[in-house]
Design a protein that fits this description.
Elements: E1 2-10, H1 19-32, E2 35-40, E3 48-53, E4 56-61, E5 69-78, H2 82-90, H3 94-97, E6 99-104
Antiparallel strand pairs: 1-5, 1-6, 2-5, 3-4
């Protein structure tokens, strides 16, 4: 079962994460095949929001709404069930400094 794990941080976190903490989480998961891919995202100020209204494509640079939390990265997990996804997420350094949101991939035919 695959899960998208959104890594969420405060828009202005108190302190940056130590990259070695992330490596300690990533390396064994990559070796076991439980982590399919993961990336850090560009700052929210560099985002582009896309909407279609009245047949016209509208774009807005930067965050569309004020928010105190932003998605700063993601990982795709390939695990047996939600319990395993929760266990893996609980070991991520951002579980202590932010939050992690898990969403199962929904098959197209459901």
């Amino acid at each position: 079962m695959k899960y998208m794990m959104f890594v969420v941080s405060d828009a202005q976190p108190d302190s940056p994460l130590d990259e070695s903490d992330i490596d300690l989480w990533v390396d064994p998961l990559d070796a076991s095949g439980k982590r399919v891919i993961g990336e850090v995202l560009a700052p929210v100020a560099e985002s582009t929001v896309v909407r279609v209204r009245g047949g016209k494509v509208l774009t807005t640079r930067g965050p569309f709404a004020e928010t105190s939390e932003v998605i700063v990265g993601f990982d795709i997990l390939d695990v047996d069930d939600l319990d395993e996804a929760i266990e893996i997420a609980s070991r991520h350094p951002m579980a202590r400094n932010g939050q992690l949101e898990l969403r199962a991939f929904q098959p197209w035919d459901e």
